[in-house]
Design goal:
alpha+beta; Sufe protein. Chain: A; globular; 4 helices; iron-sulfur cluster binding
């Protein structure tokens, strides 16, 4: 079960890297030479992140994964409660840039209600 949580954390980290790879910036400053800005939905997830918090680690249906490196700046803790093979609840705490926060928020909304099999398809 722990493998599922680590997999999901790693997929979220790749999503964050993908957003940064496209040179998107919350402030309109180009990051990597691209002249595009974040989509309004990304900005909304940054300004109003969903599913921020923690689940009870003593709950036997809750798994926790942590990815990132404090030295690099982005660290994300993802907790998932799985009941009968379905993601019942998801919480996250992300310390990092706006794209890390927004992608964590978006992904947790997407994960809720998915089967474990569907959750593992996150790319």
């Amino acid at each position: 079960v722990r493998c599922i949580y680590m997999y999901l954390c790693n997929r979220l980290q790749m999503l964050q890297v993908g957003i940064l790879h496209h040179g998107l910036s919350l402030t309109g400053i180009r990051c990597t030479g691209a002249a595009r800005l974040y989509h309004k939905n990304v900005l909304d997830h940054y300004k109003n992140p969903q599913n921020v918090g923690s689940l009870d680690p003593k709950d036997e249906n809750v798994g926790t994964g942590v990815v990132g490196a404090p030295a690099c700046g982005d660290v994300m803790k993802l907790q998932v409660r799985i009941q009968d093979g379905v993601v019942e609840d998801v919480k996250f705490r992300t310390f990092g840039c706006g794209s890390a926060i927004a992608s964590s928020s978006y992904a947790t909304q997407w994960l809720k209600g998915k089967t474990v099999e569907d959750a593992l398809s996150l790319k």
